Amino acid sequence: MEKTSIPERNLGEFKDESIAHLMQELCTPLTNIQTALKLLESPGIKQVQRQRYLGLIRGECDRQNLLIAGVTRLLAINQLPGPGEIVPINLSQIIPGIVSIYQPLAAEKGIRLGYTVPADLPEIICVEAWLRQIAIDLLHNGIKYTPDGGHVFVQASVRDNYVQLEFRDTGIGIPPSELPKIFNRFYRVRSLPNDRGAGLGLTIVQNILTHCGGSISVVSQVGAGSKFRVLLPIRG
């Protein structure tokens, strides 16, 4: 399959919006770290709680490092990566580590977080930093909009000439009338409470996938959750 790319005239706009989004997202790990540090100062804290909060801090530090790396990359490059930078990747070496970063955050909300990524999946073609950003954005959204006691699950499988990476949750869902708009720049679903994001995360994900020759789709039901399905081309 022939790869498609983001038009050159849109490159500056894409980079500016991506940087603005990532800079805003940097505030979230700091808030979570500050909260965990305050909880660690509680005089009656139990050892198991201490380990959980320390794990949360470690996870958020890792997340912040990933975000900073993304900002640094976008600031440093003058153009989007060419074919030479799009490398073969085995999802089983990437996704479990990202899921583990979010385990403490999910545990704090009483959310069951899991994944199934077979080790024998064929390699896909993408930029590793971009693949990580895709997984972070979709996993973070799943946890953010899933009520306490819910489920978030990541599953990888082969679909024709693609590897499908599915992020499903039992969250609040998206109204049918909003679904066609969620990938638009700056668009935020009105029914999502306390959403302070810039409305760029899904746009960035979609643009990255377009450049990598992939795609993203979503099915959702209000009150029942959402499924985001990412298709990534298998290495030829």
Give me the side-by-side strand order of the main sheet.
2-4-5-7-6
The count of DSSP E runs of length 2 or more, i.e. the number of strands, is 7
Whole-number count of domains: 1
Computed over alpha carbons, the radius of gyration is 18 Å
Helix content: 40-55%
Which structural class do you get from the secondary structure elements?
Answer: alpha+beta
Structure in words:
The chain has 236 residues and is of the alpha+beta class. The protein has one domain (8-233): Heat Shock Protein 90 (2-Layer Sandwich), CATH 3.30.565. It contains six helices and seven strands, in the order H-H-H-E-H-E-E-H-E-E-H-E-E. The protein has helices at 11-25, 27-40, 47-76, 95-108, 128-144, 201-211, and strands spanning 87-89, 112-116, 124-126, 151-159, 162-169, 215-221, 225-233. The strands form two sheets. It has a five-stranded mixed β-sheet, covered by helices on one side. Strands 1-3 form a two-stranded antiparallel sheet. Helix 2 (27-40) packs antiparallel against helix 3 and helix 3 packs across helix 4 (95-108). The radius of gyration is 18 Å and the shape is globular.
Q: Features of this protein?
A:
five-stranded mixed beta sheet, two-stranded antiparallel ribbon, 236 residues, Heat Shock Protein 90, alpha+beta, globular, 7 strands, disordered N terminus
